[in-house]
Amino acid sequence: MNKVGWIVFAVVAVVILGGLVFLSQNSRVNIDVSDRDAFAIQGATEASGNISDHVFGNKDSKVVLIEYADFQCPGCASAYPRVQSIIEEYGDDIAIVTRNYAFQQPHGMAAAAAAEAAGLQGKYKEMAEVLFANQQAWATLSAAERDERFAEYARNLGLDEEKFKTDRASDEVRHKIQFDKALGNKVGVSGTPSFFLNGEKIETSTIHDEDAFRKLVEDNL
Q1: DSSP string spanning 9-48?
Q2: Which residues in the chain land under pLDDT 50?
Q3: What does the alpha-carbon distance between residue 163 and residue 160 come to, in Å, rounded to a whole number?
Q4: Considering the entire predicted model, what is its pTM?
Q5: Residue 2 confidence (pLDDT)
Q6: Interacting residues of 149 by C-beta distance below 8 A, sequence separation 6+
């Protein structure tokens, strides 16, 4: 390549890089949660994309377990069955809230969007279960292959596929994911899974010890 060619290449590269930076910066939403009680169940508001917290068990319980999770996080997939067993056993006495804290690359955000999009059709829990159960199958795919796999999951769950795809890319879903993460940042979340029981952070060693986790829940109940 001659000198002129290198100059043209450099200019094009700078323009492309600048465009990518611009798109990245403008894909972020400045979510202000300074006035929010991060340990309380959140309703649907404009800040959260008009999507409320996903609550399982007894939403009126005074015992609230909040999880911040990333669907691409192996530790979250490992903790998922323990959370489900607590819902099944103590669901009448405890509220369990699942929030997004997507940071795993390259598919954490996309998986969170798939779950939230399914939630808009009443199938958040079902999609979450499929994503965790098949984590190793989609975590290594290309972006295009991943999107097709998620669409396949949506079809298998009986969702309206076109609505699912539209919702996945919507501002509402993006706001919900970033709203959840802002709440997590407010309470000091730095990794996943992170659990808070009535406002107290649960130690990682307890999360991965099924008996200790269950006893902590029982003691609070």
Answers
A1: HHHHHHHHHHHHHHHHHHT------TTS-TTSPP---GGG
A2: 4, 6-27
A3: 5
A4: 0.85
A5: 58
A6: 134, 137, 138, 141
Task: Check residue 110 and give its pLDDT.
Answer: 97
Q: In whole angstroms, what is the distance from residue 51 CA to residue 90 CA?
A: 25
For residue 17, the model assigns a pLDDT of: 37
Question: Which residues have C-beta within 8 Å of that of residue 177, sequence separation ≥ 6?
Answer: 100, 102, 109, 112, 113, 116
Separation of alpha carbons 221 and 216, rounded Å: 9
C-alpha torsion angle, residues 158, 122, 197, 83 (rounded to 10): -20
Residue with tokens 């949506």: 154
- For residue 160 the two structure tokens come to 């309206």
Put the strands of the sheet holding 95-100 in their side by side order: 54-57, 95-100, 64-69, 194-197, 200-201
**Model pLDDT, residue 193:** 96
What domains lie within the chain, and their CATH numbers?
Answer: 31-220 (3.40.30.10)
Do the Cβ atoms of 56 and 96 come closer than 8 Å? yes
Q: Where are the alpha helices (DSSP H) in 27-170?
A: 74-90, 108-119, 124-133, 135-138, 143-156, 161-168
Q: Scanning the structure block, which residue is given the tokens 């399914």?
A: 118
Give the C-alpha separation, 130 to 151, whole Å. 12
At 19 the pLDDT is 39
- Structure-block tokens of residue 104: 């795993």
Peptide bond into 81 cis (omega under 30): no
